[in-house]
Amino acid sequence: DSGVTQTPKHLITATGQRVTLRCSPRSGDLSVYWYQQSLDQGLQFLIQYYNGEERAKGNILERFSAQQFPDLHSELNLSSLELGDSALYFCASSAGQMEEKLFFGSGTQLSVL
Amino acid sequence: GENVEQHPSTLSVQEGDSAVIKCTYSDSASNYFPWYKQELGKGPQLIIDIRSNVGEKKDQRIAVTLNKTAKHFSLHITETQPEDSAVYFCAAPSGSARQLTFGSGTQLTVLP
């Protein structure tokens, strides 16, 4: 158990809908990262927050947004969903800001029908 | 940005044999190289990492070697066991924020 909690484990929704994925980092970790894993794209970095502030942005679509709350949990919001958004979404956390061990949650499997 | 290439994409070995997975990176400023293991239905788990001030690091049956001049690093698993079967990912920092860029993964199958 990595100590990173993601909910829900599975999410099935329709095109055009909006969903929210939730992540609680390991106790004491200040950074939260979101990754998307699909069969053809591997693990793609989406966005990182450090202590409530956005720190780095990767290949995150404009339809997607995230935030980190004062209690350090994070939410990833996906809107106007398309079939191609179906993927595993992972949250990871680390103690600091960069180049260090990431601890991954077990992911949220999103299926857009 | 950083480009991390990983080979092979699939690898089958007999139980007890060794397995080697290789990665190359493009960002010469990279100085931290982790390896993650992902079992079916789970998130990636860090199994070993190395910083650029050393050329090799070992932890029981797994080891990582780094060649900074050639910009490649490798994962070595000795005396493989069926529970080593999983997808393995290498990674290297990239971008101004030094976030990890992952390789495309290697599906390792250890045959009993």
Unreliable stretches covering 5 or more consecutive residues of chain B: none
Q: Into which percent range does the helicity of residues of chain A fall?
A: under 10%
The helix/strand series of chain A, from N terminus to C terminus, equals EEEEEEEEEEE
The chain pair forming the largest interface, with residue counts per chain, is:
A-B, 24 and 24 residues
Provide the β-strand percentage band of chain B. over 45%
**Structural class label of chain A:** mainly beta
Q: Helix amount of chain B, in percent? A: under 10%
End-to-end distance of chain A: 31 Å
What does the main sheet of chain A amount to?
7 strands, mixed
Portion in strands of chain A: over 45%
The radius of gyration over CA of chain B amounts to 13 Å
Distance between the termini of chain B: 41 Å
Mean pLDDT of chain A: 94
Please render the helix and strand layout as text.
The complex is a heterodimer of chains A (113) and B (112).
Chain A: E1 5-7, E2 10-13, E3 19-24, E4 31-38, E5 42-50, E6 53-57, E7 64-68, E8 74-78, E9 87-94, E10 103-104, E11 108-112
Parallel strand pairs in A: 2-11
Antiparallel strand pairs in A: 1-3, 3-8, 4-5, 4-9, 5-6, 7-8, 9-10, 9-11
Chain B: E1 4-7, E2 10-14, E3 19-25, E4 32-38, E5 45-51, E6 56-59, E7 62-67, E8 72-77, E9 86-94, E10 99-102, E11 106-111
Parallel strand pairs in B: 2-11
Antiparallel strand pairs in B: 1-3, 3-8, 4-5, 4-9, 6-7, 7-8, 9-10, 9-11
Question: What does this protein look like?
Answer:
The complex is a heterodimer of chains A (113) and B (112). Chain A is an all-beta fold and 113 residues long. Chain A has strands spanning 5-7, 10-13, 19-24, 31-38, 42-50, 53-57, 64-68, 74-78, 87-94, 103-104, 108-112. In chain A, strand 7 (64-68) and strand 8 form a beta hairpin. The radius of gyration of chain B is 13 Å and the shape is globular. With 112 residues, chain B is an all-beta fold. The chains are: A mainly beta (113), B mainly beta (112). Chain A binds chain B through residues 2, 4, 33, 35, 42-43, 45, 48, 55-56, 58, 90, 92, 97-107, and chain B through 31-32, 34, 36, 41-46, 49, 89, 93, 95-105.
